[in-house]
Amino acid sequence: MGFLSIEVSGTPEEMGSAYGSQAKEQIMKAAAFYKKFITEKSGRSWDDISKLIDSDIIPSLSSNYSEYFEEMKAISASSGVPLQEVVAINVRSELSFGLFKIENKDNTSDGCTSMTCVSDKYAMSGQNWDWIDDAYEFTIILKLNPINKPSCVMVAEAGMIGKIGMNEYGVGCLINALRVSGYNYQALPVNIAARKILESATAKEAVKYVVSKGLACSVNYMVCDKDYSCAIEATAYDTVVIERNSMGHVYHTNHTIKDHDSRGYEPFFVPDSAPRLSQIEQAAQKAPDSSFQSLDKFFEFFSDTSNSPLSVCKFSIPESPAHTLCTVTMDHNAKIVRFRFGMPCDPSKGDFEFKY
Protein backbone atom coordinates (compact mmCIF):
# COMPACT_ATOMS: atom_id res chain seq x y z
CA MET A 1 0.00 0.00 0.00
CA GLY A 2 1.37 3.42 -0.95
CA PHE A 3 0.85 6.26 1.51
CA LEU A 4 -0.18 9.67 0.28
CA SER A 5 2.44 12.39 0.76
CA ILE A 6 1.38 16.00 0.28
CA GLU A 7 3.01 19.41 0.69
CA VAL A 8 1.08 22.63 1.26
CA SER A 9 2.21 26.24 1.65
CA GLY A 10 0.90 29.71 2.39
CA THR A 11 -1.70 31.20 4.68
CA PRO A 12 -3.87 28.99 6.92
CA GLU A 13 -6.68 29.22 4.36
CA GLU A 14 -4.35 28.41 1.45
CA MET A 15 -2.78 25.46 3.25
CA GLY A 16 -6.15 24.11 4.35
CA SER A 17 -7.61 24.42 0.86
CA ALA A 18 -4.68 22.58 -0.72
CA TYR A 19 -4.72 19.95 2.03
CA GLY A 20 -8.42 19.23 1.63
CA SER A 21 -8.31 18.96 -2.14
CA GLN A 22 -5.22 16.72 -2.22
CA ALA A 23 -6.33 14.38 0.58
CA LYS A 24 -10.09 14.42 0.02
CA GLU A 25 -10.54 10.64 -0.14
CA GLN A 26 -8.43 10.01 2.96
CA ILE A 27 -10.19 12.76 4.96
CA MET A 28 -13.57 11.26 4.11
CA LYS A 29 -12.38 7.88 5.39
CA ALA A 30 -10.97 9.40 8.58
CA ALA A 31 -14.22 11.26 9.24
CA ALA A 32 -16.33 8.12 8.78
CA PHE A 33 -14.05 6.13 11.07
CA TYR A 34 -13.95 8.70 13.87
CA LYS A 35 -17.68 9.39 13.85
CA LYS A 36 -18.19 5.72 14.70
CA PHE A 37 -15.22 5.48 17.08
CA ILE A 38 -16.10 8.61 19.06
CA THR A 39 -19.73 7.60 19.56
CA GLU A 40 -18.70 4.13 20.73
CA LYS A 41 -16.10 5.43 23.19
CA SER A 42 -18.10 8.32 24.58
CA GLY A 43 -21.44 6.54 24.68
CA ARG A 44 -23.05 9.57 23.01
CA SER A 45 -24.90 9.80 19.72
CA TRP A 46 -23.33 11.67 16.81
CA ASP A 47 -26.16 14.20 17.10
CA ASP A 48 -25.10 14.89 20.70
CA ILE A 49 -21.43 15.09 19.70
CA SER A 50 -22.30 17.52 16.88
CA LYS A 51 -24.16 19.76 19.31
CA LEU A 52 -21.15 19.71 21.65
CA ILE A 53 -18.83 20.64 18.79
CA ASP A 54 -21.10 23.54 17.81
CA SER A 55 -21.76 24.81 21.33
CA ASP A 56 -18.35 24.42 23.02
CA ILE A 57 -15.53 23.30 20.75
CA ILE A 58 -15.93 25.52 17.68
CA PRO A 59 -16.36 28.72 19.76
CA SER A 60 -13.19 27.86 21.71
CA LEU A 61 -11.21 27.12 18.54
CA SER A 62 -12.49 30.27 16.85
CA SER A 63 -11.61 32.48 19.84
CA ASN A 64 -8.35 30.94 21.00
CA TYR A 65 -6.83 29.29 17.92
CA SER A 66 -8.36 31.21 15.04
CA GLU A 67 -5.64 30.54 12.46
CA TYR A 68 -5.92 26.77 12.99
CA PHE A 69 -9.69 26.99 12.88
CA GLU A 70 -9.41 28.85 9.55
CA GLU A 71 -7.25 26.00 8.29
CA MET A 72 -9.87 23.46 9.38
CA LYS A 73 -12.63 25.44 7.67
CA ALA A 74 -10.63 25.47 4.43
CA ILE A 75 -9.97 21.73 4.72
CA SER A 76 -13.71 21.20 5.09
CA ALA A 77 -14.62 23.44 2.17
CA SER A 78 -12.15 21.89 -0.27
CA SER A 79 -12.67 18.26 0.76
CA GLY A 80 -16.45 18.42 1.04
CA VAL A 81 -16.28 16.90 4.54
CA PRO A 82 -18.57 18.76 6.98
CA LEU A 83 -16.76 21.15 9.33
CA GLN A 84 -17.99 19.32 12.43
CA GLU A 85 -16.34 16.14 11.17
CA VAL A 86 -13.03 17.86 10.37
CA VAL A 87 -13.07 19.38 13.86
CA ALA A 88 -13.86 15.95 15.33
CA ILE A 89 -10.79 14.45 13.62
CA ASN A 90 -8.68 17.17 15.25
CA VAL A 91 -10.16 16.63 18.72
CA ARG A 92 -10.60 12.87 18.47
CA SER A 93 -8.55 12.28 21.64
CA GLU A 94 -10.69 14.70 23.63
CA LEU A 95 -13.99 13.29 22.36
CA SER A 96 -13.10 9.60 22.61
CA PHE A 97 -10.74 9.37 25.59
CA GLY A 98 -11.56 12.55 27.53
CA LEU A 99 -15.27 11.71 27.43
CA PHE A 100 -14.99 7.92 27.64
CA LYS A 101 -17.61 6.00 29.59
CA ILE A 102 -16.21 4.78 32.91
CA GLU A 103 -18.01 1.46 32.45
CA ASN A 104 -16.56 0.97 28.94
CA LYS A 105 -14.09 -1.93 29.23
CA ASP A 106 -12.99 -1.74 25.58
CA ASN A 107 -9.19 -1.43 25.46
CA THR A 108 -8.98 -0.10 21.90
CA SER A 109 -6.58 2.82 22.06
CA ASP A 110 -3.41 4.13 20.52
CA GLY A 111 -0.60 2.18 22.19
CA CYS A 112 2.71 3.93 21.59
CA THR A 113 6.26 3.47 22.87
CA SER A 114 8.49 6.57 22.84
CA MET A 115 12.05 7.46 23.80
CA THR A 116 14.26 10.55 23.63
CA CYS A 117 18.03 10.44 24.16
CA VAL A 118 20.11 13.63 24.34
CA SER A 119 23.76 13.97 25.37
CA ASP A 120 26.87 15.77 24.17
CA LYS A 121 27.34 12.91 21.67
CA TYR A 122 23.85 12.48 20.21
CA ALA A 123 20.28 13.77 20.10
CA MET A 124 17.81 11.09 19.02
CA SER A 125 14.12 10.43 19.51
CA GLY A 126 11.62 7.94 18.23
CA GLN A 127 8.38 6.12 18.73
CA ASN A 128 6.17 3.35 17.50
CA TRP A 129 2.71 4.69 16.72
CA ASP A 130 0.37 1.80 17.50
CA TRP A 131 -3.17 1.92 16.21
CA ILE A 132 -5.70 -0.26 14.40
CA ASP A 133 -5.70 -1.44 10.78
CA ASP A 134 -8.45 0.95 9.67
CA ALA A 135 -6.03 3.86 10.05
CA TYR A 136 -3.87 2.60 7.17
CA GLU A 137 -6.62 3.87 4.88
CA PHE A 138 -6.26 7.48 6.00
CA THR A 139 -2.68 7.89 7.24
CA ILE A 140 -0.61 10.41 5.27
CA ILE A 141 2.70 12.26 5.27
CA LEU A 142 2.04 16.00 5.55
CA LYS A 143 4.62 18.71 4.91
CA LEU A 144 3.60 22.24 5.91
CA ASN A 145 5.24 25.49 4.82
CA PRO A 146 3.36 28.25 6.68
CA ILE A 147 4.18 31.92 6.23
CA ASN A 148 6.57 33.30 8.87
CA LYS A 149 6.70 29.99 10.75
CA PRO A 150 9.03 27.01 10.46
CA SER A 151 8.19 24.32 7.96
CA CYS A 152 7.56 20.85 9.34
CA VAL A 153 6.87 17.31 8.23
CA MET A 154 4.67 14.82 10.08
CA VAL A 155 2.76 11.59 9.89
CA ALA A 156 -0.91 12.39 10.40
CA GLU A 157 -4.38 11.01 10.09
CA ALA A 158 -5.92 12.85 7.15
CA GLY A 159 -7.63 16.06 8.22
CA MET A 160 -5.43 16.50 11.30
CA ILE A 161 -3.30 19.63 11.36
CA GLY A 162 -0.72 18.44 13.90
CA LYS A 163 0.73 15.10 14.98
CA ILE A 164 4.15 13.33 15.07
CA GLY A 165 7.11 14.87 13.26
CA MET A 166 9.99 17.35 13.06
CA ASN A 167 10.43 20.96 11.98
CA GLU A 168 13.21 22.74 10.11
CA TYR A 169 14.97 23.65 13.38
CA GLY A 170 15.18 20.00 14.37
CA VAL A 171 12.43 20.26 17.01
CA GLY A 172 10.51 17.00 17.22
CA CYS A 173 7.15 16.00 18.65
CA LEU A 174 6.14 12.47 19.69
CA ILE A 175 2.76 11.56 21.22
CA ASN A 176 1.62 8.85 23.63
CA ALA A 177 -2.10 8.36 24.16
CA LEU A 178 -3.35 8.33 27.74
CA ARG A 179 -6.89 7.69 28.93
CA VAL A 180 -7.62 9.76 32.00
CA SER A 181 -11.16 11.12 32.20
CA GLY A 182 -11.78 14.83 31.76
CA TYR A 183 -12.09 17.41 28.99
CA ASN A 184 -11.23 21.11 29.44
CA TYR A 185 -12.74 22.85 26.40
CA GLN A 186 -10.78 26.05 26.98
CA ALA A 187 -7.34 24.43 27.20
CA LEU A 188 -4.97 23.48 24.38
CA PRO A 189 -6.33 20.66 22.17
CA VAL A 190 -4.02 17.67 21.72
CA ASN A 191 -3.39 18.04 17.99
CA ILE A 192 -3.09 21.82 18.09
CA ALA A 193 -0.49 21.41 20.84
CA ALA A 194 1.44 19.08 18.53
CA ARG A 195 1.28 21.72 15.79
CA LYS A 196 2.46 24.40 18.22
CA ILE A 197 5.43 22.22 19.20
CA LEU A 198 6.31 21.85 15.52
CA GLU A 199 6.16 25.63 15.08
CA SER A 200 8.65 26.28 17.89
CA ALA A 201 12.26 27.35 17.45
CA THR A 202 13.48 25.19 20.36
CA ALA A 203 12.21 22.33 22.48
CA LYS A 204 12.31 24.50 25.61
CA GLU A 205 10.19 27.16 23.90
CA ALA A 206 7.65 24.49 22.94
CA VAL A 207 7.50 23.07 26.46
CA LYS A 208 7.06 26.50 28.02
CA TYR A 209 4.13 27.28 25.73
CA VAL A 210 2.32 23.95 26.17
CA VAL A 211 2.71 23.91 29.96
CA SER A 212 1.48 27.51 30.21
CA LYS A 213 -1.72 26.67 28.35
CA GLY A 214 -2.56 23.28 29.85
CA LEU A 215 -4.06 20.43 27.83
CA ALA A 216 -7.68 19.80 26.96
CA CYS A 217 -7.42 16.11 27.84
CA SER A 218 -4.90 13.50 28.91
CA VAL A 219 -1.87 12.95 26.66
CA ASN A 220 1.90 12.65 26.81
CA TYR A 221 4.28 14.53 24.49
CA MET A 222 7.96 13.83 24.03
CA VAL A 223 9.63 17.06 22.90
CA CYS A 224 13.21 17.02 21.66
CA ASP A 225 15.85 19.05 19.85
CA LYS A 226 19.64 18.88 19.69
CA ASP A 227 20.07 20.36 23.17
CA TYR A 228 17.12 19.27 25.29
CA SER A 229 14.30 16.79 25.67
CA CYS A 230 11.55 15.97 28.15
CA ALA A 231 8.10 14.46 28.43
CA ILE A 232 4.98 16.55 29.06
CA GLU A 233 2.52 14.25 30.84
CA ALA A 234 -0.87 15.90 31.08
CA THR A 235 -4.47 15.45 32.09
CA ALA A 236 -7.35 17.89 31.72
CA TYR A 237 -6.55 19.06 35.25
CA ASP A 238 -2.76 19.33 35.45
CA THR A 239 0.54 19.03 33.60
CA VAL A 240 3.81 17.44 34.76
CA VAL A 241 7.18 17.75 33.01
CA ILE A 242 9.32 14.61 33.19
CA GLU A 243 13.00 15.49 32.80
CA ARG A 244 15.76 13.26 31.44
CA ASN A 245 17.35 10.63 33.64
CA SER A 246 21.07 10.46 34.42
CA MET A 247 21.74 8.97 30.97
CA GLY A 248 19.91 11.81 29.22
CA HIS A 249 16.94 9.59 28.35
CA VAL A 250 13.16 9.80 28.75
CA TYR A 251 10.81 6.86 28.10
CA HIS A 252 7.02 6.66 27.92
CA THR A 253 4.17 4.38 26.87
CA ASN A 254 0.42 4.60 27.60
CA HIS A 255 -0.14 5.05 31.31
CA THR A 256 0.66 7.95 33.60
CA ILE A 257 4.05 7.71 35.30
CA LYS A 258 3.61 10.66 37.67
CA ASP A 259 0.87 11.44 40.19
CA HIS A 260 -1.93 13.67 38.93
CA ASP A 261 -5.01 15.53 40.13
CA SER A 262 -7.45 13.00 41.58
CA ARG A 263 -10.37 14.38 39.56
CA GLY A 264 -9.13 12.39 36.58
CA TYR A 265 -9.96 8.67 36.54
CA GLU A 266 -7.50 6.35 34.78
CA PRO A 267 -8.48 2.74 34.18
CA PHE A 268 -5.40 0.62 33.50
CA PHE A 269 -6.66 -0.11 30.03
CA VAL A 270 -3.59 -1.07 27.97
CA PRO A 271 -2.22 -4.30 29.46
CA ASP A 272 1.05 -4.15 27.53
CA SER A 273 1.90 -0.54 28.47
CA ALA A 274 3.98 -1.35 31.56
CA PRO A 275 5.85 -4.25 29.89
CA ARG A 276 6.74 -2.07 26.90
CA LEU A 277 7.99 0.73 29.14
CA SER A 278 10.17 -1.68 31.09
CA GLN A 279 11.45 -3.32 27.91
CA ILE A 280 12.63 -0.16 26.16
CA GLU A 281 14.09 1.30 29.36
CA GLN A 282 16.12 -1.83 30.07
CA ALA A 283 17.28 -2.11 26.45
CA ALA A 284 18.40 1.53 26.35
CA GLN A 285 20.23 1.33 29.66
CA LYS A 286 22.21 -1.72 28.51
CA ALA A 287 23.00 -0.38 25.04
CA PRO A 288 26.40 1.06 24.04
CA ASP A 289 26.72 4.68 22.90
CA SER A 290 26.91 3.48 19.30
CA SER A 291 23.21 2.50 19.50
CA PHE A 292 22.32 6.19 19.78
CA GLN A 293 24.67 7.57 17.14
CA SER A 294 22.95 6.42 13.94
CA LEU A 295 19.31 6.16 12.95
CA ASP A 296 19.83 2.61 11.71
CA LYS A 297 21.02 1.46 15.14
CA PHE A 298 18.50 3.60 17.03
CA PHE A 299 15.67 2.09 14.97
CA GLU A 300 16.48 -1.33 16.43
CA PHE A 301 15.03 -0.32 19.80
CA PHE A 302 11.61 0.00 18.15
CA SER A 303 11.77 -3.22 16.11
CA ASP A 304 12.35 -5.27 19.27
CA THR A 305 9.93 -8.22 19.37
CA SER A 306 11.23 -9.83 22.56
CA ASN A 307 8.44 -10.62 25.03
CA SER A 308 6.03 -10.74 22.08
CA PRO A 309 3.12 -10.02 21.90
CA LEU A 310 3.72 -7.59 24.79
CA SER A 311 6.71 -6.10 22.99
CA VAL A 312 7.88 -2.64 21.92
CA CYS A 313 7.13 -3.74 18.36
CA LYS A 314 3.49 -4.17 19.29
CA PHE A 315 1.32 -7.01 18.09
CA SER A 316 -2.46 -7.02 18.25
CA ILE A 317 -3.97 -9.07 21.07
CA PRO A 318 -7.64 -9.33 22.10
CA GLU A 319 -7.02 -7.27 25.25
CA SER A 320 -5.21 -4.55 23.27
CA PRO A 321 -6.02 -4.70 19.53
CA ALA A 322 -3.79 -1.85 18.36
CA HIS A 323 -0.50 -2.80 16.72
CA THR A 324 2.44 -0.83 15.33
CA LEU A 325 1.39 1.10 12.22
CA CYS A 326 4.34 3.47 11.86
CA THR A 327 7.78 3.89 13.39
CA VAL A 328 9.19 7.42 13.54
CA THR A 329 12.87 8.03 14.31
CA MET A 330 14.68 11.38 14.37
CA ASP A 331 18.26 12.58 14.49
CA HIS A 332 18.01 16.12 15.84
CA ASN A 333 21.62 17.03 15.16
CA ALA A 334 21.39 16.02 11.50
CA LYS A 335 17.72 17.18 11.25
CA ILE A 336 16.61 13.90 9.69
CA VAL A 337 13.27 12.20 10.30
CA ARG A 338 12.38 8.71 9.06
CA PHE A 339 8.97 7.08 8.87
CA ARG A 340 8.49 3.34 8.38
CA PHE A 341 4.92 2.29 7.74
CA GLY A 342 3.71 -1.03 9.07
CA MET A 343 5.52 -3.20 11.58
CA PRO A 344 9.13 -1.98 11.94
CA CYS A 345 10.44 -5.48 11.20
CA ASP A 346 8.65 -5.43 7.80
CA PRO A 347 9.65 -2.78 5.19
CA SER A 348 7.00 -3.84 2.66
CA LYS A 349 4.56 -1.00 3.41
CA GLY A 350 7.11 1.69 2.66
CA ASP A 351 9.67 4.10 4.13
CA PHE A 352 9.87 7.88 3.95
CA GLU A 353 12.89 10.01 4.93
CA PHE A 354 13.16 13.78 5.09
CA LYS A 355 16.22 15.91 5.86
CA TYR A 356 16.26 19.63 6.59
From TrEMBL:
Residues 124-344 form the Peptidase C45 hydrolase domain. NCBIfam families: C45_proenzyme. It comes from the Eukaryota. This is Peptidase C45 hydrolase domain-containing protein. It comes from Tortispora caseinolytica NRRL Y-17796.
